[in-house]
Design goal:
Length: 368
């Protein structure tokens, strides 16, 4: 078995090597979960468990798991032996948790596609119609997607608990995991509420970005790995500070790519966030700058965002945000946050591959 083999192997620190091993660990674990589901009910396994396993294995960059593993190494964790294998397995659990978040997020956003394929709710809605089931097809699809997300959460928790059983630091790691789960849901709550209220606040947008993206994507994965390694307080503080800064920069960069990115690379139409009326820092900053400059044309265009979609001028909004300086402001903020985050790592004596990986990630976040 892969698990036994890893006990005797020196585990990698480089991005591609960690990604590959995480994929192998997930494949082994999810095969067992699907087999267990099949014993409960064959249709349940085929319609939900198999799809969840395939979705988790076939897509994603494994970023959170890699960052968690880098946190383990930065905290002084071993690169071989049972402890290292257990830690990497626990890091892999974040990928299953991500499947939960995406399944539910697509329902909330009514997103028809995910990773180039129909989202869970869209696929089940289409099947309901094709098979001529009774009842409301859309509600059926959404209910199935919610179940998929619930199953993913259960599997993620199971994998984490099983992985941590042999680690003396399991209590600290469980605490980080619980906090991370709560924070990502709080961030989603704030995002949805701001959208419903039509909020346009730079401060509230940054707060939601920190909880929904920075904390969940960067800060807490690093924290989880370092906590498993029983890292000293100064290391924990440095990694978490890096994660908070670079994580926000990463989200701000994503906001820019949503509007100005190449659809061939982003995989989505430009301006999806604006069409949904989301309270992004980019939009909130643009409205403030337009008011300060007395740019009534920009104000008129940007104030329509969040209203009926036929009135939203995405290209006009992109031009307005650039004209008033919102785009350049966000680009500058990304660079500042990335530089500050990297500065927090300066006191640490990092493994060369870990240090290079964290530098590269911060540089990517700064390139907006």
């Amino acid at each position: 078995m892969l698990s036994a083999h890893l006990h005797e192997t020196t585990l990698p620190a480089d991005l591609d090597g960690v990604r590959s091993l995480v994929g192998d660990l997930l494949s082994e674990y999810l095969e067992g979960r699907v087999n267990a589901a099949d014993k409960v009910d064959e249709d349940f396994a085929a319609d939900l468990a198999v799809r969840l396993a395939s979705f988790t294995l076939d897509g994603g960059k494994r970023l959170r798991s890699v960052l968690a593993w880098w946190g383990w190494l930065a905290g002084g964790g071993a690169v071989r032996g049972a402890g290292a294998r257990a830690a990497l397995s626990a890091c892999s659990a974040i990928e299953v948790l991500q499947s939960f978040a995406l399944a539910h997020d697509d329902v909330m956003d009514a997103a028809p596609m995910r990773r180039g394929e129909p989202s869970f709710h869209a696929a089940h809605t289409a099947e309901h119609r094709a098979r001529r089931y009774s009842g409301d097809a859309r509600r059926y699809g959404e209910a199935m997607a919610i179940l998929v997300g619930d199953l993913a959460m259960a599997w993620a928790d199971d994998l984490l608990h099983e992985s941590l059983e042999s680690l003396p630091t399991r209590s600290a790691a469980h605490t980080v995991w619980r906090e991370m789960r709560t924070e990502v849901m709080a961030g989603q709550f704030l995002d949805l509420r701001a959208q419903a209220r039509g909020e346009r606040s730079e401060l509230s947008a940054l707060h939601a970005d920190r909880l929904k993206t920075a904390t969940y994507t960067v800060e807490r994965p690093l924290h989880l790995g370092a906590a498993m390694a029983d890292a000293p307080a100064r290391t924990l503080a440095a990694l978490r500070g890096y994660g908070a800064d670079v994580g926000v920069a990463f989200q701000l960069r994503d906001d820019l790519l949503d509007l100005y990115g190449d659809p061939a690379r982003t995989g989505k139409d430009p301006g999806e966030d604006l069409r949904e009326g989301k309270n992004t820092f980019l939009l909130a900053a643009g409205l403030r700058l337009a008011r300060e400059q007395g740019d009534t044309e920009a104000l008129r265009t940007l104030c329509l965002i969040g209203g009926p979609s036929e009135h939203v001028d995405i290209e006009g909004a992109a031009r307005a945000l650039e004209r008033v300086g919102a785009r350049s402001l966000v680009q500058r903020r990304c660079r500042e946050l990335a530089e500050r985050g990297l500065g927090r790592l300066a006191p640490l004596d990092l493994d060369p591959a870990v240090g290079e990986g964290l530098r590269s990630f911060a540089q990517t976040a700064a390139q907006s």
